[in-house]
Amino acid sequence: MDKRRSAELESLLSEHKAIGVSRQVGFERLHLYSIITHSTAIEGSTLTLEDNTVMFDDGIAPLGKQVHEQMMNLDLKRAYEVAEQIATSRTQITLPLLKALAALVMKNTGNYYRTLAGDYDESKGDLRLQNVSAGRGGKSYLAWEKVPGRLAEFIAWLNEQLGAIDRMTVAEVYELSFEAHYRLVTTHPWSDGNGRMSRLLMNLVQLEGGVEPSYVRSENKPAYIAALRAAQDRGTSQPFVEFMDDETIEILSAEVDQYKKDLQEDVPWAREAADDEAATTQVNPATPQVTPQVDQVTPQVRKLLSHIGRDDVSAAALMQAIGLSDRRNFRERYLRPALESGFVEMTIPHKPQSSNQRYRLRSAASICWAT
């Protein structure tokens, strides 16, 4: 790792810890959900962070999403929970342990194969017994017969490195984690799940080294794959490590900047109150107060209001009641207009993205709607 990237990582993580970004209640949980969401998105999952948050916390399956996608995300969450325990206990990395993690990752989406070399089951973490295409220019990954030997070498190397992790700098821990990712995914021990497993192992190393777990943003998937291919073609991990350095720097920087910005801001209702006060001084005092009128709202808002009773209700429950699966459509055409028109209010207005957010009719809207 070059000196510039090394210094920037050291500085960012130091500030990240000093101002308490990761000490926020709920940060570690939601950060893990982000890691899972982006990791599975790279493999084709369309579940959003909001989808996963509701599914993980409330057990509500996202509407309109394939069961295969849901299982992929739930399986990876369980694998991460076990990986965190491994990192905390400093458990030595072994082949059975890697196969057990792979079995968790592929538990409900793995395939069973019958080959000339024998049968193997992805859902049990079995190593592949057939060759796999690398998907570019006719290239293939390591011949399957060589996988056990190369994997044994990898495990020995990784345990030796982990033995010295307490003496490593922040930059060195990150570099080790990126190198481990590169070596495992290049060995490609399984028919499927290698990307998720490599990113999982990367985070396991980071947790053991005491640094903030990083991830690859799904929108950067093309650059991520290009960096891996460049490294594999050149026979050196440098292009991939540099890509991961930059990705981690950008994510840490964004988290630090957002945290500072959030602490400087006030709650939305305070701004609304200030705006209302300013507006009051500019209007005619005789102007009557405007109350929501049902006949002025769209059919979408009218439909949403008809499904809000006396109890507070979640966005997921409202979508299910209305019969919607497109979260953006629900937010833009139903929920946001209802909030902006004054018919509906949030139960936690100062945390719009809270996983515990619920919605209810405002008192004035309740009277208006009832009439």
Report the structural category: mainly alpha
CATH homology superfamily name of the largest domain: Fido-like domain
Count the domains.
2
User: Strand percentage, roughly?
Assistant: under 5%
How far do the termini sit from each other?
68 Å
Provide the helix percentage.
55-70%
Spatial strand sequence of the major β-sheet = 1-2
Largest sheet features: 2 strands, antiparallel
Instruction: Please provide the count of β strands.
Output: 4
Q: Low-confidence runs (pLDDT<50, min 5 residues)?
A: 281-291
Helix count equals: 15
Per CATH, what is the topology of the largest domain?
A: Fic-like fold
Mean pLDDT: 88
CATH class of the largest domain: Mainly Alpha
Cα radius of gyration in angstroms: 25 Å
Question: Mind telling me which CATH architecture of the largest domain this is?
Answer: Orthogonal Bundle
Order of helices and strands: HHHHHEEHHHHHHHHHEEH
General shape: globular
Task: Give an overview of the whole structure.
The chain has 371 residues and is mainly alpha-helical. The chain has 2 domains: 3-262, Fic-like fold (Orthogonal Bundle); 268-281 and 291-370, Arc Repressor Mutant, subunit A (Orthogonal Bundle). Helices cover 58% and strands 4% of the residues. The chain is built from 15 helices and 4 strands. The strands form 2 sheets. Strands 1-2 form a two-stranded antiparallel sheet. Strand 1 (112-115) and strand 2 form a beta hairpin. Helix 4 (67-89) packs antiparallel against helix 5, helix 7 packs antiparallel against helix 8 and helix 12 (299-305) packs across helix 14 (327-340). The longest helix has 27 residues, at 238-264. 30% of the residues are buried. Residues 281-291 have low confidence and may be disordered.
